[in-house]
Structure formats: structure tokens, C-alpha cells
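Fold these two proteins, one after the other.
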Amino acid sequence: MPASAEGLLTFKTENNNYSAGDDGHYTNGVEVSWAFIPSDQHWVRGLAEAIPGWSAAGLDGAAYRFTHQIYTPNDIEVVRLVEDDRPYAGVLMGGISLFDDERHTGWRQARSLTLDAGVVGPASGAEFLQREFHRWIGSDKPRGWDHQLENEPLLNLAYRSAWMAQRRLNGYELEFGPSAGFAVGNLYTYAATGLGARLGANLERSFGIPSIAPSQGGHSSFLPGQGFSWYAFAAVEGRYMAHNLLLDGNTFSGSHSVDRREWVGDALVGAALTWDQWQLTYTYAWRTDEFKDQSQHDRFGSLALSLWF
């Protein structure tokens, strides 16, 4: 990495309008992250050394993240409680992610460990942000925020590992392989497994397939200063959801809730374009029903712009 490149700043926005979806359910998400390769004396190497299965010397990267998300029922103009649709909820949290990328002959293993802390409820500011943004763009006024989830602190730990085979295909580079992971906390508790693939040019300078909620802190990064490159990607993931605060309702107080489905699946397709210090990534996501009586599958898109400093 060039001496001038000290960290990777990424701004990611997720919205159902990026995929011709309705303005409901996971209606908007914003994440700002700062990824970096820690120095030998950086405190995150001490953290990695203290975690079973990780080590200070083996740590390849880390990231600080700030996330805000907004969830609503499909019809946001209804004042009364919509009992058969998901609760209004805002999520505000910060987190840290650790990354480990082990290279082998013809394949690699990529691991991530993420810790998030924050709050769900009015303290997230989601009601104000959605109301003012809709007023600014002249969109429908959200009227049901009186029924949002109550304030509750959040703490969540997530782990993911992917095993990617590396091949050549008609002059292009190909990575493909399975993944597995889990999350534990009062926001999400789940086990997940999936399969992903990337096809493009100069894949060695980039890492990973972008993550979408509920996954946090995926290692979608790249090395700067190597001209133009690109890749397309596709992935599927299935999750057994043991707990989802945003559907199950507040843990310590009464709130609106819906009957969560235990098995949820995602399908992702997208592409990334890289030029020297810059990368632009688009992801289209399709998700199976997350709760009973859900009227239709959710679709949303994700745009991420990254720049090395």
C-alpha cells in the first residue's frame, strides 16, 4: 500500500428506491466506515490477541463504522397501528470490525468479527429524519411513528467466514465458495450459510462481496493505486433467525410486534468499479418474507462509494 494511503473511507446507502421497491419495510440505511491496516502497536491488535482463534500478528485489517437505519410498514400514511405489518423502528449504532485474510495455493479464507453497540427507538432520530426528508422531496408524510419501538440499548456480536477458490475463466479471474456465520445479541441472533462468486479483472486487489443488513461490516475493500479494474458478483444466503428485535418488539417493554419467520433467504447481484483510489459498488438484494402475513417479498439496493486517503 502506498505511504499516502492511510485509510479507506466508505459511504454506503441502502434504499428500496434503488431497486424499484416500495417505500416500506427496510426503507433506508446509511453507513460510514473507516477501514485501515493497524500498526504493530495499534490497540485493535491487542484486542485480536485476546480473542480465541485470532491473533495480533494475523490481523489484516480493521474498520470503525457508524450506521443508521429506518424500518416502517408499507403504508406510512396510516395513523393507526398497522397490526399485520412490521413495526416502525430506527436503529443508530457504532461498531468495530476485525478482518483476517489467509492466502493459500488456489484458495483463500476470509474472516470477519464485528461488534456493534447502539440504540433502537426514538433516540435514533429516525422519525425526524424520515419526516423532514419526505417534506423536503415532497413525498408521502409518515404518520404512524407514534407506534415505533421504544428506546432500547443494543449490543450485537457477529462472525463470518468464507472459503473462496480462485480460478481463471476465459481470460477473467473467478472466485467462488461457501460461507458461514452467526450473530448473537439483542438486535439479531441467527445462524447463516451461503454461497458467493466474483468474476472480473485483477481480483487480487479487492476483497469480498458487499454485505447488506442484517449483516454488518463486511470486508468489501480494495488496494489503491493500480489503475482500473472491475468485478461482478452474485451470492445467496440463508439464515435461521432465532431473534430479530425489529420484528419481535422490545425486549424489556411492551411494543408492537409481528410473527417472525425463522427461515429467511437473500439473493444478491451487483458490480464494483475501481479506479486508482476510488471504488463504486452497486448491489441489488431480493429477500424472502421475514414475517407471516407479509404482502410481498422485499427488494432494495445498495450504493457504496469508497476513497483511500
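Now the second one:
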Amino acid sequence: MTPAARVQSAIGLLDEIIAAALGKGPPADRILADWFRSSRFAGSKDRRVIRELVYRAIRHCGPVPQTGRAAMLALAQDDPSLLLLFDGSTYGPASLEEGELVAEAGIAPGWLADRLAASDIAGAEARSLLDRAPLDIRVNALKADREVLELPVRGESLPTAQGLRFPHGTQVEQWPEYRDGRIEVQDGGSQLACEAVGAAAGETVIDLCAGAGGKTLALAAAMGNAGTLIAADVDRGRLSRLGPRAERAGAAVAETILLNPGREAETLEAWRGKADAVLVDAPCSGTGTWRRNPEARWRLDPAMLDRLTELQRHLLGLASGLLRPGGRLMYVTCSLLDEEGAGQIAGFLARNDGWSAVPLPLPLGRPRGQGLRLTPHHDETDGFFIARLDKPC
């Protein structure tokens, strides 16, 4: 493919990604994967360049671009070599016309940038949300140990019990250590959130929003498969992936529970008042994960954020009923917005007498309200809010 043809292909893909973001369709990585699978004329170098162009444009544009061409022209304002490729050549972009639409650069849509700023995420803090993330793994303590495990590439130790960091794009999924369950891909901040739970052998621990089980597996390793670990979620598809992952990791999950939205308490009645710890890894805006999913900021709107904060409040109430007296509720979101983090904890404490927020002795993060916040800028992890609430005895 010619350089101009690559740019035009990136523009077409951006059109699809913009439409999917507005219509809550498939994510950018799936759109790219489908296009690469069907476009056999694109060689490996073509695919690499097109992917890079697409994600550079996504990161560059704050508000949702009007078109893929407008997004690419915005990127070209900072890269004049791209402008030369808008020359009307065969398979390339049409020639430039006077007064063409150019998308707006920025961190996020205006309303969302304002919400972040109100949560003290601005300037360098905000810009770091769109950096490229490294690849972090957790060595599975059920099968191996970081200190002695030999991997094809030497990783950098993280300030977690079993974490290692590799450059972006490292193909760890191709390693035998990944295939046999000795390592799992997990961001360092996510690993710290699991360690904050303090799950121990012999305890009853509930992962209330388990999803595909990334944190569930970390909890099983922390417990040494000695105790009762429950994984619950409302998403059948994601929860169905936990079984094969747990088998590969050698992780013992006592029960996997599919919840009925709005009727979760009924399904979990058998566990009411019995858990030593409940992890609420709550559905959220994902503002802390934009390094990996930059188009996610185009999918969020104020109404969706309101629905998410109401769901988080509901889940905190649900989790509180599952704990025994003296048990601990761990609340985690991969969001940097206060209404999904410090604000949720303040609201819970105001509604529930006798509960106490407990400081977290983690090696990274800074206090935010009654919890701890990790950010890409300060901690080189995804963005997280983590808090511990202890139930009165």
C-alpha cells in the first residue's frame, strides 16, 4: 500500500469507530481486527502503520470528531507530512479543500474534561491518561514465583507481590508461561487493588463484580486456594470465561453465581452476613483506562455517568449486607472522577452509621477523600480509586 492509501484506510476505520462510539457499537480494537482479517491486501507493515495512525488520531481528538477525515486532518496539524498525502492520488484521500472540517484536539469532550478538572485531574495529570500503557503481568503464586521464574524477556519488578512490567506490545500471550497459567496479564494498579483486599487462607471472600475473573484469580492466589471464594456477576458472557481461566491458573473458585440485575440480593441470600471480605470492582466510566481504550471517552455521556453512579451506590448497599459483623468492604473503580470514588464513599458513610474507612498501606497512590487514588502520571498504573470500609461489630 502507498502511504496515501494507508491514510485513507485509517480515515475509513475512524469513520467506523466514531459511528460505533456514538451508537455504542463494537470497540476500536475489534473494528480494526475485523478489517485486518478481511483486507488481505494489507501487509504486516501496512497494518502496523494503519493501526498507529488510527490510535494517534483517537488520542489527539478530545470531543468526538465529525468524521474520520476531520480527525486525520486534526492530527495532520501537528504532523505536516500527513497533509502532503491529501493529494487526490489513487486510493488516497481526496485533495484538500478550503474550509474543510478539522476535529478539535483535547483530552476529552468538554463536559468530561470539566468533570475531571473538578476532580483535580488536569494539565499533566490529564494528558497522561492518553499515554501508551506498558504491559504488566502477575506471576501466579499458585504455580510459580517471580523471583525464580525465567521468562523469554526480562521484566521490571513492580511494587506488588508478583508483578512484572514489559514494554507495550510484548506478546506475552504467545509465551508457554501464559498458556500454562503461570502468568496473567494484569495492570499493576489492579494488582494493588487485589492486595488491598487482604484475602487470606480460610476466609470467605466474594468478588461481587467478577466479570471474566481477572481479580478473582488474584484473590485465589492470595488465599492459596484455602478458603471459600465466590465469583458473581450479571454478565453471562464474561462470567463464562472465568471457568477456563481458573482451570488454567489452578485457581479454586467455590461457586460462580450469575446474578439477575435488580434481584441480586435474592440470588445471594445464602451468603448474607457470612463474608469476611467483599470486593466491589464496580462498573464505572473507565476514565482511568484511556491509555488502553482511548475511544472510551467518546462513548460516555452525562446520562450514562448518572446511571453508573446509581449502580455503584446500589452495589455498595448490596455488598454491605453480605458481610459478617467486622467484615471489610473493598470498593474499587478504574475511574478518576470523584463522583465515582471519594464521593461514593462519603455518601455511603453518611447513610450507614458505625462503618469506618480504614487507611490503606499501599506502596503507591495518594489519599483522596476516605480512599486512595492511583494515576498514570504519579504511579505509572491505570487510574484507580480504592477504599476499605469496615462493618461495625
